[in-house]
Amino acid sequence: MHRTSPVSAPGRWPRPPHTPAPGCTAPRHPTGAGPALALLAGLALGGCGTARMPQGEERADLQRPQMRMAGPASAMAGEATTPTEGDSDGDDGRERGLIAISVSGARETQDAQAEGGANGLGALVRAAAAGHGGSTSGSSGSTGSTSTATVAGAGGVVQRVRVSTPAVYLRLPLGRQWTLEGAGSAQRRSGVTPTWYTDTDSLRSVDERRRTADARLTRSGSHHALSLGVHGAQDDDSRARGMSLQGHWDSQDHHSRFHLGLAWTEDTERPAVSGTATPAERQLARAVQLGLTQTLGPHDVVQLEWTGSLQRGDLDDPDLAYDVRPDSRQAQALQLRWNHWLGFAALKTGWRLYADDWGVRAHTLEAAMAFPMGADNRSTITPEVRWTTQSAAHFYVPWNGASIIYPVPTRHWNGYTTLDPRLAAWGALGVAIKVDAALDADWNASLKLGVQRQQAGWRLLDEGSGGLAPLTTWSWQAGLRRAF
Q1: Do the bridges between strand 328-341 and strand 98-111 make them parallel or antiparallel, or are there none, so unpaired?
Q2: Domain total for the chain?
Q3: What range defines the domain where residue 430 resides?
Q4: What residue stretch is flagged as signal peptide (predicted)?
Q5: Among 386, 395, 451, 387, which Cα is nearest to 424's?
Q6: What confidence score (pLDDT) does residue 119 get?
Q7: Residue 265: inside a domain
């Protein structure tokens, strides 16, 4: 049975292309959580210091609260996959409608390296473990058996997972105070993924599809807004649903904004054998987020956010060998962002601290420079860089290829073990560039390209978890939106 986590990493579904750390403990249902839920729970339980949010989610707009800012709104605004500041208000002051479509993708590779145990006993153990996990859902009917079809690659590179995600978003104003938003996506993940560590002996074929939808209704006033959201997601062996409540309140001078969010989600697994009395498995998650956005002057906007999350249920990953995890996970994330207008471009920086009771501690630092372009400065080109360092979970078992029974764990932490490299200690460095072009008063097009490299040796202050192959993720995203 494929047990899943509604908001956090222990699953087969990868983070969307523009999240960090290819080996990171990312949400299994990244596009299924809905904008509000992922904004809350995704930041806290996404793990690994991820500072980007999954596709379809909005980052807080750092252009608001509004003071007369020195830089163009397109450059000073916080990054979002949904409306930009220029799309927000019409000539009569009402919010404009918006329709947007996007297609994103990612390709993950790892360096080839020698793996395996010390002798024949280890080989027998590995062969038994490789076939442990049952079948992998998907239209192709592929199984969880070991596959080496895509291992051979030029330059000693192992081709692993490919992800593609088309998505659509609609914002429809309903008078002056009400706004209805909706979004949907269909994600496909294919290739091979390891059952333990990054050992190529443990690669198995995957071909998975997932469909998601969410909706949100917002009532806005002159100094406040309140939103109620619902979301759902479904694949061949699980179904997720949830609700969220968000609100923000502005000061009288609109220089300060306080925001609060609450979220709930439930993930239900179908029985491993249909038509049997086997009960469906459930996982529940709760999240709360508090934040303050403050305009410091015509050149500066800062934002501070805290997110707390609690997840309960069977959090073991059934697609991994020897994976036994606690049945709850508490996490907190603290994020600080600062946008500063330099006179010719907007400097956007951020720092994020993540910590959970599994022992994972992560820091992420990011910086971007948004350069206005065009006669009206509504277009931007934004290069960015991001660096992440993460510690290992308490129950992560370090790689030991010399063990006579490799990969069987030789030690436990309170009865728990994992060989999941996403819960190991490592560091990651990523760079990207995004172009957002205003085609006219109503049409905008965007393109983003990025690459990220993750290695154990890049962890700060120590050498990280040994025996893991470096991972590289290439990502892209193209979008077109029209305001009306």
Answers
A1: unpaired
A2: 1
A3: 35-483
A4: none
A5: 395
A6: 60
A7: yes
